[in-house]
Predict the structure.
Amino acid sequence: MRFAANLSLLFTERPFPKRFAAAAAAGFDAVEFLFPYGFPAETLAAELNANNLTLALFNLPPGDWEAGERGIACLPGREAEFRAGVDRAIAYACALGNRRLHCMAGIVPPGLDRAIALKIYVGNLRVAASACLDAGLTLLVEPINTRDMPGYLMDRTTLAREVIGRVGAPNLRLQLDLYHAQISEGDLATRIRANADLTDHVQIAGVPDRHEPDSGEVHYPYLFEILATTGYDGFIGCEYRPGGRTEEGLGWLAAWRAGIDRSSLNRS
């Protein structure tokens, strides 16, 4: 398994540019984050290069995050803004050597028929996937649970498969966040196997509190073995909120990499 530290949630004891060195010092050889747009691409590229890190993933611009927007791909009347955001994300990806972009679907506005929101989403995904294909990039969709994000359109792996089929782009793939999938659907081993043909990125966190993956109800060592049997060789994004200082909660990573005592990694 190749693990990527999510710098939007991990090592937050430091300013964002300092988190790259902290991740490398902790043993990560890859990182991901939500958004790069608050920093010049040259600044982030320098941190990646200085610390010999691969950038696994980041998101398209989400709209007004502070106002509660979680993507604009399903929102009517925002198509031009969405397409400008795709261009901006591709420019960052090319500058940072990143090959994957996640498109957040957005929260369905009150009063908007869900079928209409889905149609807008599919249309925007076609545009984004085409632009990404021209740039040699993979575009991802991620089901997110509606407990954490009420009203979010893309909420289940079954819907993701439907949407990917409707868009019909060869570079549109699944971002399988096992934390969200456990809350929304459960049956994770079956979910991994059923979606192995489309999965291009995986993320993890403990359930239900989104802390370290060796806490809570999900036994990740077993799921890592399932992923291996499916032939998955992509990154596993560590998108969790540490229960304390980030480094103090990385025992699960050291144990997994050492190949020792895997059966006891889940503390609960």
Notes: The two ends are 23 Å apart (CA to CA).
